[in-house]
Amino acid sequence: MIAYLIKRIAIGLVTLAVASAVVFCVLEIVPGDPALLMLGMNAEPEALAALRDEMGLNQPVLLRYVDWVSGMMVGDFGRSYTYSSPVIDLIAERVLVSLPLALMALFLSTAIALPVGIFSAARRGKAADTMVMGAAQVGVAIPNFWFALLLIYLFAVWLRLVPAGGFPGWGAGVWPAVKALIMPAVALALPQAAILARVTRSAMLEVLGEDYIRTARAKGMPRRIVLWHHALRNALIPVLTILGLQFAFLLAGTIIIENVFYLPGLGRLVFQAITQRDLIVVEGVMMLLVATVVLVNILVDIGYAIVDPRLRTRR
Q1: Which parts pass through the membrane (predicted)?
Q2: Which whole-number Å values give the CA distances from 100 to 94, 191, 311, in the listed order?
Q3: Is 245 exposed, middle or buried (CB count within 10 Å of its CB: 0-12, 13-18, 19+)?
Q4: pLDDT tens for residues 178-187?
Q5: DSSP single-letter state for residue 235
């Protein structure tokens, strides 16, 4: 198990190194002069020279990259030109919105998808299976921002149960903050739940055709025990894969939802940084998201080893 974990961590570190080089090249070398992009084409030469000196753009490219990476390793992501504050402080403030939102959406997606997928697999070919998978197909096809607008109209404008947007902050209390995140979490969760339900159904159908499942049924084991204790665990490998991908998507792909609900999260921060050409902030947030994806993949690999003990001993 230790060797398995060390190998996955080493792969994750290599991925981070490659991603940092790609992000640095795309945002600082390919577009041209970052200072000119940030100040605009009509910038004064003196202001342009001062910003280039502040950002260290007069140094060789390799030295700039090494300084940037070494700074991130000690928590220094640079200083935002637009906000005049350290990037790490901006990220720490915004992640308190995006991370709970992603966790709430992932919990809702999993709580909906697993029972629905198992229910559909247990009734393969019947009317209930057709109706559930048809609804899941509709959920996959609906854009989450359009679904978010429907939720706003129904629950905020018509029924007036929850606020239409904004975030009061955690200082206003846990319930007001959670209440502001309910509709965005539902808008993110339902399309992802539709995908996860279809994957769960497919994985369960493959497992239900195995010999040991037929043997358990032949011995008179209750249907619920067969489904939840025997079939589900062996069907969890593809489900865990999709869960890991979905969490990364929910954390990194909230730009539209956070703008629809006017939430001060990472997605909105990236959107504002791109429109304001604040490349330092974009670099920092992108590397944080890449690190999150790598960490989630490592946790998913550990989940594989827990679910399937053969992976702990396989060379």
Answers
A1: 9-30, 101-122, 134-158, 178-197, 231-257, 285-307
A2: 11, 18, 32
A3: middle
A4: 888 888 999 8
A5: T
Q: With the C-alpha atoms ordered 234, 235, 241, 247, is the resulting torsion angle positive or negative? A: negative
Task: Tell me if residue 41 falls in helix, strand or coil.
Answer: coil
Measure CA 200 to chain center: 19
Instruction: Give tens-digit pLDDT for 131-189.
Output: 888 888 888 888 888 888 888 888 888 888 877 888 888 888 888 888 888 889 998 88
Distance CA 179, CA 183 (A): 8
CATH of domain 89-313: 1.10.3720.10
- Cα–Cα–Cα angle for 86, 31, 61, rounded to 5 degrees: 65
Whole-prediction pTM: 0.81
Whose CA is closest to 196, among 104, 303, 111?
111
DSSP code string of 217-277: HHTT--HHHIIIIIIHHHTHHHHHHHHHHHHHHHHHS-HHHHHHTT--SHHHHHHHHHHTT
Token pair 């791109």 in the structure block, residue: 274
Both ends of the chain: CA-CA distance in Å?
A: 10
Q: Is residue 205 within 8 Å of 125, Cβ to Cβ?
A: no
pLDDT of residue 246: 81
Give per-residue pLDDT as tens, 215-258.
777 777 777 777 777 777 777 778 888 888 788 777 766 778 88
